[in-house]
Amino acid sequence: xxxxxxxxxxxxxxxxxxxxxxxxxxxxxxxxxxxxxxxxxxxxxxxxxxxxxxxxxxxxxxxxxxxxxxxxxxxxxxxxxxxxxxxxxxxxxxxxx
Length: 97
What we know:
The chain is mostly helical. The protein has one domain (16-96). It contains five helices and two strands; from the N terminus they run ααββααα. The protein has helices spanning 16-30, 32-35, 62-76, 78-87, 92-96; strands at residues 49-50, 57-58. A hairpin with a 6-residue loop joins strand 1 (49-50) and strand 2 (57-58). It is globular and about 35 Å long.
């Protein structure tokens, strides 16, 4: 299955809901106010790859989701965005080079 945003093959099948909920949990520990601003995806689709964690169908790759969160965090707090890239690196650092 290919990602509907970047058209790359989904190699890390973690759905946007599961990934953003993990990001929210991490961010809530270090900056609860900023965590409240993170957009939690809630997307239901009829066909796609199944998430490793929740088995829900998905068609957006972890790279695109994490890049979206990274871009948001970079605007809000550069230091937190760097830590995010180190913790949730689905080739984000590679694309920044």
